[in-house]
User: What shape does this take?
Amino acid sequence: MMNRTSVLLLLPLLFVLLFASGGCQPSVVPSTQPSADTLRVGISANAPPFAFRQGGAITGLEPALALKLGSYLGKKIHFIEVPWDKQIDYLTQGKTDIIMSGMTITKARSAVADFSLPYLRSGQILLVRMEDRQRFSTGVDSLLNTNYRIGTVAGTTSDYFVTTAINGANEVIFKSSQQAVDALIGNDIDAFIYDAPIICYYAARHQNDKLVPILTMATEEYIGWAVRKGDAELLTKVNEFINSYKNQGTLQDEIKYWIPYLYR
Assistant: This one.
């Protein structure tokens, strides 16, 4: 977890987190066959602080919220670890009931899955080496009409953004965010673009490697949970959970525990 110094250094970060709650470290229940008293949660454990492995177990914001959702619904939570690019497929094929893995709500995804109310506001920002922060001070605009090596994660919003918004981008695609961060440390890329909460998490974790976030957001995005098209009953209950826990303040507390940045 981040130490007190990391948290204090990240207080000036200028993005808004919407709703949140609690602070417990969840345990993971092995996946089983579907049943009426279980909720099968598709999760990709390679995107801290949303979901990641620690001590052999999956932990993070999404697993913590999933356990709270299970309690609210009166269901057991069975985590099914899914490759990121297969999340929608697993959902539509009936292998999972819900995706809770830091997924950005997009028009393309909304065409094949139904999304809950958003619980977190995000956007695309840069992670760079401290020595280069002036060069990238304007954020994504600094990448236009250049040959900078831009790291992204395959199949994510950042991958789509770079390929569609930056003409002729020199994109270097990685399988995981940690691989991209390692490449940045190793000087194999010049900048890493990804979701703001994840970028800021890595900036805190890698202070000794002198990585810093560039806080100018290139996009405005929202994080939510996806269910199968037509599963109105589950979607309604999930939205009721979000509203209930937001109103109680517990949703805010959970987000603040995992992403202790400046709230507005």
